[in-house]
């Protein structure tokens, strides 16, 4: 049996790797309309939040809070939305999205609003570098 972590194919197709947190693989959603990160706990066969151990739930909460703080700071976000839906992709994952009064979906949820806008290569590289540096620093000093 291979216990290596497996990322759901849809998440792999829609995201780029930012970094690894204490528990989760942290991914940038390929939608330039929103600074949008997805945290995926690196344990196979997780579907729901209650599939995590109590310690893992605490760690995921810490990762979400740090990610939220970083999105607010880097992008001057008005607020962040944190959500675990999993209706389309069954692998447990948590969305952390920076929101702004002038974004495409404000004040409603982002799902089902318009079409994703791809990053240019330069935009993606710049955003990934900034997020990677901030997250690595936050997790190192925690």
Automatic annotation (TrEMBL):
Q: Which positions carry the signal peptide feature in this UniProt record?
A: none
Q: What SUPFAM superfamilies does this protein's entry cite?
A: HIT-like
Q: What are the UniProt keywords, alphabetically?
A: Hydrolase
Tell me the protein's name: Diadenosine tetraphosphate hydrolase
Protein's UniProt keywords contain Hydrolase: yes
Organism superkingdom:
Bacteria
Q: Determine if Cell inner membrane is one of this entry's keywords.
A: no
């Amino acid at each position: 049996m291979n216990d290596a972590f497996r990322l759901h194919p849809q998440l792999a197709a829609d995201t780029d790797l930012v970094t690894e947190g204490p528990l989760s693989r942290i991914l940038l959603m390929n939608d330039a309309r929103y600074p949008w990160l997805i945290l995926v706990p690196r344990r196979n066969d997780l579907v729901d939040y209650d599939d995590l151990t109590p310690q893992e739930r605490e760690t995921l909460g810490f990762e979400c809070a740090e990610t939220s703080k970083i999105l607010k700071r880097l992008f001057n976000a008005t607020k962040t939305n944190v959500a675990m839906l999993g209706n389309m992709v069954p692998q447990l994952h948590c969305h952390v999205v920076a929101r702004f009064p002038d974004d495409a979906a404000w004040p409603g949820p982002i799902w089902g609003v318009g079409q994703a806008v791809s990053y240019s290569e330069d935009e993606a590289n710049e955003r990934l570098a900034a997020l990677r540096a901030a997250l690595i620093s936050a997790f190192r000093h925690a």
